[in-house]
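Repro:
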Amino acid sequence: MTDAPAHLHSDTPSAWVCRWAGLVPAGGRVLDVAAGGGRHARYFAARGHPAEAVDRNAAALAGLAGIPNITTTCADLESGPWPYAGQTFAGIVVANYLHRPLFPHLLAALAPGGVLIYETFAAGNEKYGRPANPDFLLQPGELLELVRGRLGVIAYEDVLVAEPRQARVQRLCAINPAP
């Protein structure tokens, strides 16, 4: 898990996620990875997508109980098995979370035509606060390298943001080409 401050995990969906959400095929199932309270699962469910929220924090996921179009899975993505073996999603969203061993699972779980929307902290963030541990910071171009030769990049940024607080982030939106 990243050591991101709690205030970065608000109920407001990421502007980056909202910007590219319309590319996710209509009605397609969306996976919100390390969902916490499920801000992105809620956002996609409200847009008519069945949403799956996965997190190791059962208490955080409990707040999603009974919301139409949302299912939850409590799983430790870092020490347990990948809970979605053999399943695919029309959209996968990862925000403020980095666990590199998940990369192959995320790519395998993205359906043809599916959209990966990823946004997390990058090298240089240590100047602005947590996370500062290099294990939780993407290296320059790392998200691009992750998808090179596999997905079509729609947008990529490695930027300093001011909101919700000053931070260095990398963001990617990429599509799995249809066969």
